[in-house]
Amino acid sequence: MNRINGLTEKDYYNYLLLLAIDASYNAGVEIMKVKNSTNIGTRLKENKTQVTDADINANNVIISALSVTNIPIISEESVIPDRFNNRKVWIVDPLDGTSEFVNGGDEFTVNIALVEDNKVVLGVVYVPVTKELYFANKYIGSYKYIGEDLLEYENIIDESKKLPYTNTEIYTIVASKNNLDKITKGFIEGISNGKDVKYNNRSSSLKFCVVAEGNADIYPRFARIAEWDTAAAHAIVKYAGKNVCDMNGNELRYNKVDLGNPYFICQ
User: Fold this and answer.
1) Best exposed site among 72, 140, 159, 170 by fewest CB in 10 Å?
2) CATH number of the domain at 3-162, out of 3.40.30.10, 3.30.540.10, 3.40.50.1370, 3.40.640.10?
């Protein structure tokens, strides 16, 4: 097996995974500090989307933690240096679901992914309010852990549920709580026609995670969404034995010139 920095490739990816898990927890602490404050510092970015103090503080924590790897970092909230000069790149959304956060909801996440040769190989999705942690890499598969405290890596595996851990009894479609567009509605109506179908609304990357768990069968997306919105959760889905593919059946790719994703189906 190849060795990287003196470690086997498997051990190296497990080291990077634990680093990302630790960064996600610490980012979650910063997010909850802002959530529980009297002013979350909401303002508009140049692209007219919202950003808060929680987004920025979480981003600073994650960038600091991941910088020790010397792997370029693509983040929604910071500059992207030299991202085409390395086979590997981190892709980060420090607070996925900013609108949910601003509106006082709980379904927002911290997303950290590692991409190699344009494909996801590692992902962490952390839910600060509920303490749910989803994590995966190409060697160990996908897991879910719930707990206040970080454990040693081996203990996290032992205390976590391997994904998927259930199956739906009724075919279940999951889609965005806040952005259900006309095309998606039409797709859902087409699937639902003459069938017994259940519908599930979720926010942020949790839409992917319920598919990875086995609590939903499909998540269709027919609206603009960026790479940092999908990469981490894509890894959770992929290493749970499912995938995220464009309308031609090709797995989504990352660190593209255009950091937007095409329409896709997660199933």
Assistant:
1) 170
2) 3.30.540.10
